[in-house]
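User: I'm curious what two different proteins look like when written out as structure tokens. Can you demonstrate?

Assistant: Sure. I'll show them one after the other, since each token string lines up with its own sequence. Here's the first protein:
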Amino acid sequence: MQIREIEEKDNETMEQIIKRSLESFQLNIPGTAYFDPQLGCLAQFYKQQSNAKYWVVVNNQDEVVGGGGITPFGLKTGICELQKLYIKPEAQGMGLSRELMKVALDFAKEHYTCCYLETLKKLKVANLLYIKLGFQQLERPLDGSEHNAMDAWYIKELS
């Protein structure tokens, strides 16, 4: 497996990975990434943001099996957001989310003081990973949150 920055040719595959994952948890609802307007053009979206990147995981057959990104969070100085971290079911359980997060957080440390993320409590494996990697759970979302269907929020100081 290899992690690299997203390219335009990866947009459709990542959109499908994200949508299928959300559908599998009955989360193809407003207030989730399912309806984000940039979902079909992630490569272009992340390139347009300052201090933002999106990475994909590619298997030995050069197939994209997942991805995740970092963008500035709203208008808050020094805070980024870990976004759209999804792995295909057949590639789960191999530590790919942890590897993607390591790449993303290393990048984030160069530009930000804190990393924020939003998720759902029912995504138990994801929540456990965030805690293992040093994220602290918040009682409510940070002001400026756009995904109102989320019910779990985390922040990590980057040092």
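Here's a second, unrelated protein for contrast:
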Amino acid sequence: MRNKVLVAAGLVVVIAIGTYMLAGTTDKNVNSKPDTAVVEMDTPSFKEMVQSYSMRTVQAESASISSTQLIVKESETKSTTYRLPADEFFVSIAPYVEKTHPCATHNLTGCQGEMVEEEFNISVKDADGNKVMDNQTVKSQPNGFIDLWLPRDQTYQVTIEHDGKRAESEISTFEKDDTCVTTMQLG
């Protein structure tokens, strides 16, 4: 009789552990890999999508853009990787007066600059002094950043002006360069 009770108790324990393990992996399968897709888009559509994340008209858990790719994470298990155009480099600049944050790889959905939806005059010159942008008025986005698409593999002198204040910085667009510039303090 005692052996039957032990066997029955053992079966109950095995069934309970099995049920617990099965229920625990139903909601989030810890052994499964996230669903990741790699997508190529035409340049105008890609730039429009990037702008939609910057303007906060499209939502995602995160959308980080490096010098070579945009990774959009929609959930814990779903992300999409987009390749950047081969001849253009994305850089996002958050001019500031008082508050900034350290950043290297821009997160379109997470980074927040100080100066939201304000107008700036921007000039960009290449290393030879050729004007890429000449005192162009640009409005920062709801995230406080100004997005620029510049030719790759070059060095530029960027000047930003706002309400009589000015910031200058040298940036470059090589493969390992940062896409998030938060060091341009207006003074």
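A detail about the second structure: The longest helix spans residues 2-27.
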